[in-house]
Amino acid sequence: MRGWRYNPTLSADIDAYVSPLFDVVSDKQREVLYQNPLNSIHLTVPRADDPAEAAAERLAEWKASGVLRQDELPGIYAYYQYFRLPGSTWEYCRKGFMCHIRAYGWDENVVLRHENTLPASVNDRAELLARTQFQTSATHGLYRDDDFELEAYLDEAMRSPLYETVEDYQGARDVLAVIQDAAIIRRFQQVLATREVILADGHHRYEGSLAYRQARELAADGTATGREPWNYHLMYLTNAAADDLRILPTHRLLLEMPNGGTVADLVREMEPYFVVQPKEDAHDLPDIIAGKQWAFGLYAAGRAYKLRLRPEVHALLNWPTTAEVKDLDLTVLHFFVFQQVLGVMGLDAQRAWPGVAYVRSLLDCLQRVDRGEAVAAFIVNEVTMAEVEAVCHSGAVMPPKSTFFYPKTIGGFLFTSIADDEAGNPFVEFFQAPALSA
Measuring CA to CA, how many Å separate 37 from each of 42, 43, 413? Predict the structure, then answer.
């Protein structure tokens, strides 16, 4: 692919133009970013009565005025994110690269998902893509390469970065470089040709690309070759075997008691399913449950508890899903607490239920309970990469908000076009491959 980027004058201050992804940017962040007329937020989350049309018009203006420029040569774009986790001084580096990957349908079992999507969000992304034919942020996919062959090429490219952020909205430092050596790009294609890709983040954007590809195929009425630009999707690929791939826990905040009960009722009704142990300090709950299967922290009415599922009751979990999903901590929590105790029946109902909030910060959970904004907080362990892979290969999906891959990719760092005129790229035939495109 031939990437589109902010021109050299603007990219020298790239921090001013990047933005959080559409599904994580807060209202407050949006208002600040909207003040910069050249920030990528105007393409990713346009503010207008007709958002897609507004994005298309602004994109045309930016191309015409040189705000965005397309690279002359095709390439694979190395993308490194340096970050620290709260409470630690260790700096991680998540290594990956951005490229075009074919927008495979789920039934082709090449790109595997681990969560369901909301139709409204998919339609929003598909409409934006159809009107702009421009991809403003990469989804995050995982391939597995235990030999780490591609990292050597990425490290070499990073010796001459194109640009980098000082610090993005989440505290990470993002660095971009490009590989334009045809032989190396061919090797990337060969390594990935037999790999499955697990979609880590960006299910709505990926399904938006898939919906757009399917609409274009239908309109082509059997004349499509499969090589048209609209067959492809911008993805950031990282190695699932890497130690710097971090998945953070997302805790559950109970905002209301659907059955009108009290906290004492909640604790009592959980006891047939869980061993409930009072603890001194709610701040210790993550350490107390760390590494323990089917263990959770509970904070309610100023008191902390450790919950541990009684092993013999696990057989009662009768949702129609795979054994891999049933073994997950979060499935246990959603079945035995949200369904059996609170009476919200099934994952579909729970996904739409306004009585639960999904919060990553432990401190935020505890404070909101103390302020009376929530009834209780359920503290959970993070999902492991092994669990993600097992669920994906089982063909099932996880409970909502099971994974939070950290850090997120950012919008505006690299753009790509899937417009029809991209087919005129003289390098296309050389770089064509079943899965990945330069």
Answer: 8, 11, 16
CB neighbour class for 160 (10 Å; exposed up to 12, middle 13-18, buried from 19) = exposed
Is the pTM above the cut of 0.85? Answer: yes
**Shared-domain flag, residues 256 and 342:** yes
Nearest to 259 by CA among 348, 352, 343: 343
**Does residue 185 share a domain with residue 98?**
yes
d(CA 117, CA 306): 32
- Look at the chain and report how many structural domains it folds into: 2
Q: Which residues are registered as beta bridge partners of 415?
A: 4
Q: pLDDT tens track of the chain, all 438 residues? A: 999 999 999 999 999 999 998 877 888 999 999 999 999 999 999 998 999 999 999 999 999 999 999 999 999 999 999 999 887 889 999 999 999 999 999 999 999 998 876 666 778 888 999 999 999 999 999 999 999 999 999 999 999 999 999 999 999 999 999 999 999 999 999 999 989 999 998 888 999 999 999 999 999 998 999 889 999 999 999 999 998 989 999 999 999 988 778 899 999 999 999 999 999 999 999 999 999 999 999 999 999 999 999 999 999 999 999 999 999 999 999 999 999 999 999 888 888 889 999 999 999 999 999 999 999 999 999 999 999 999 999 999 899 889 999 999 999 999 999 999 887 666 656 555 545 555
The verdict on 274 and 234 lying in the same domain is no
C-alpha to C-alpha distance for 26 and 29, rounded to whole angstroms? 5
Apex 114 CA angle, 113 and 117, nearest 5 = 80
* Structural contact between residues 220 and 160, judged by C-beta atoms closer than 8 angstroms: no
Residue 103 near residue 233, CB atoms below 8 Å: yes
Asked whether residue 259 falls in the same domain as residue 194, the answer is no
| Parent domain of 225 | 4-246+405-437
Instruction: Tell me the torsion sign for CA atoms 240, 201, 169, 249.
Output: negative
Using CA atoms, how far apart are residues 127 and 125, in angstroms rounded to an integer? 5
First to last CA, the chain: 4
Residue among 211, 56, 226, 61 nearest 136 (CA): 56
For residue 295, give the CATH number of its domain: 3.30.1760.10
